[in-house]
Design brief:
Elements: H1 18-27, H2 44-57, E1 60-61, H3 63-66, H4 77-84, H5 99-113, E2 119-125, E3 141-148, E4 159-161, E5 174-175, E6 182-183, E7 190-196, E8 213-219, E9 227-238, H6 240-252, E10 263-271, E11 277-286, E12 289-293, E13 299-303, H7 307-318, H8 324-328
InterPro entries: Arylamine_N-AcTrfase, Arylamine_NAT_domain_sf, Papain-like_cys_pep_sf
Protein name: Arylamine N-acetyltransferase 2
GO molecular function: acetyltransferase activity
Length: about 350
Amino acid sequence: MGSLPSDPPTGRPPVLSPSQVSSYLAHIGLPPSFHPSASPVLDLAYLTTLFTHHITAIPYENLIIHYSPSHAVSLDPQTLFRKIINPPGTPRLGRGGYCMEISLLFLHLLHALGFPSAYTVGVRIRPRSADGVPSGQYTGFVHLVILLTLPGDDSGQRYVLDAGFGGDGPTQPMPLVEGLVHHNSVGTQEVRYSRGWLGGKSRFVPPGDDRRLWIYEYRNGVEKGWNAFYAFDADFEFLEGDFGVMSHYTSTAEASFQTRAVLVVRFLRGEGEDGGVRVKGKVMMAGPVVKRNLGGKTEVIKVCETEAERVDALREWFGIVLTEEEAGSIRGRVSELRGEE
């Protein structure tokens, strides 16, 4: 297991300023007792509260690919901050981003809050069939997760935070422990990390079990079999330059599912039995269809026929407000809804 730094390895100051951190925490609704001014203990309870507030305030969405004049994704942290975080007193636009946008901004928040060990790794996913089930061989690197150890924890236990996988992403920080099963908050879904190899087209001959990859798996009920979503090497750090290459492909290639369909997921916040927050459900948009899951069966609540209907649905169900220029910039793209022509 690789060692993690107890202090920032370069000694550079955090990317986000104290005032930006304050705006960030206000945006996600984190209670004042969890703000740096209150000197909270940075334990697992803190990390879980922070993560829950984050994923229920900042949606997964790829709208910049479809609804922007440039159709270009920037991973510059200051650009991401201006896009996603609204300063107190300004109109809330409800924007988020897709995996690399959300997780890289969240990484900078973690560093600023006192989690210097946080780092990122690249992830290979399995493509989904028409019914949404992952199947077949792993793709190239198109996703990322954050790993960290808790400050002051000498055990070396690492936790995985995936703030940008969408509706099937983990809804809590997950310890990197093989086979440990977690209920994933919504419905009957359970998730875990197993260890294994890519298989398929991989020609790598493993030198030993210590080189096995970590596999994020799910099952939709205890009577169901486990299925794999994605795989990663927890000891091979990816840098922001690596994600820039990944993001360029993901946001521009015709073969990328991100360029073919509008995708939005918003986790819904509820109150837990302990008085804290929990994920109580989710609302999802895939192309023209809006669905909702409040802990039971997923239901279709809207099928959009035109762009005007979809722009209204983004506002009503996700709190996302597009400008007239943004809404019109989808014209001529494969993802545009044209109604009856």
